Amino acid sequence: MNNSSIDNIILATAKVWVRDSSGNYKLGTALLDSCSQVNFITDEFSQKLRLSRSKQYIEIQGIGKSSTNIKYKTTTNIKSVVIGFELPLTFCITTHIAYQPDPEIDISSWNIPGNTTLADEEFHVPGKVDLLLANESLDARLE
């Protein structure tokens, strides 16, 4: 069986610029989740950006009523790597979001048109997800 089998699930991801505490931008990988109502950032990435945090006690419920307790939130801007679109967002800080596919998916036989700009050119390569962008973030572009 090859790596492009039906067993692989490809998550909707995008590379985005995320503003750090000094006003500079660092590249992050975002999972686009149209079913989520809250944005998330990993603790590791927020520390790398040296973002300030404030206390935020909230219980996030997921599938099967599993819950995660959030203790902190932060705010920063994200910016598209493709177009000049920029958006200020609030993020709940969590220890882990998701991982991209493992192992790498072989896309050599895929017929992606050469003039197509992908939001994440490395969507098929395993790696950490730094952010989860919720429905509110995805809808903001439409306003």
Walk me through the structure.
The protein is mainly beta and 143 residues long. The chain contains two helices and seven strands. The chain has a six-stranded mixed beta barrel with strand order 1-2-7-3-6-5. Strand 1 and strand 2 form a beta hairpin. The protein is globular. It starts with 12 loop residues before the first strand and ends with a helix. The N terminus is likely disordered.
Number of domains: 1
Fraction of residues in H or I helices: under 10%
Lateral strand order in the biggest sheet: 1-2-7-3-6-5
Strand content: 35-45%
As a whole number of angstroms, the C-alpha radius of gyration is: 16 Å
List low-confidence stretches. 1-5
Rounded mean pLDDT score: 86
> In the CATH hierarchy, what is the class?
Mainly Beta
- Which architecture name does CATH use? Beta Barrel
Secondary-structure-derived class? mainly beta
DSSP, total strands: 7
Could you state the CATH homologous superfamily?
Acid Proteases
Distance between the termini: 45 Å
Number of helices: 2
Label the overall shape: globular
Strand-and-helix sequence, N→C? EEEHEEEEH
List the helices and strands and how they pair.
Blueprint: E1 13-19, E2 25-32, E3 40-42, H1 43-48, E4 54-61, E5 67-80, E6 86-94, E7 131-133, H2 135-140
Parallel strand pairs: 2-7, 3-6
Antiparallel strand pairs: 1-2, 1-5, 3-7, 4-5, 5-6
